[in-house]
Amino acid sequence: MxxxxxxxxxxxxxxxxxxxxxxxxxRIPKEIKQGDTIKVQVKxxxxxxxxxxxxxxxxxxxxxxPAFYVKEMKVYYGDRLVSRYEMASxxxxxxxxxxxLKATQEAxxxxxxxxxxxxxxxxxxxxxxxx
Length: 131
Hints:
The chain has 131 residues and is mostly beta strands. It has one domain: Immunoglobulin-like (Sandwich), CATH 2.60.40.10. Helices cover 0% and strands 44% of the residues. The strands form three sheets. The protein has a four-stranded antiparallel beta sheet, with no helix packed on it. Strands 1-2-7 form a three-stranded antiparallel beta sheet, with no helix packed on it. The chain starts with 24 loop residues before the first strand and ends with a strand.
């Protein structure tokens, strides 16, 4: 009799509730002068899952659990919405996103992420000018 080929274990799909998600973190320069264009970086520990499962037997994908990813990022400077980013499930896990901002006033800078399950995560810091 031919030996039966050993198949690898199927990877278990992690339920959304078990993903390790941490609040986003924001980084801005220590020294900011009025009128400077600054580089802002936002790090967010959040997985990105398409919801598809690979079927090894026939090489196709099928729908598994619901997709789970960051679908939107909004940037507020003071009371104004200054940028809005639409994202998709192709965004990497734990993204580090950078953008530029012209520092025109001393005001709060807030970034709000929305997941595909409509849960919001936000981070805020103050833009203050150096002497």
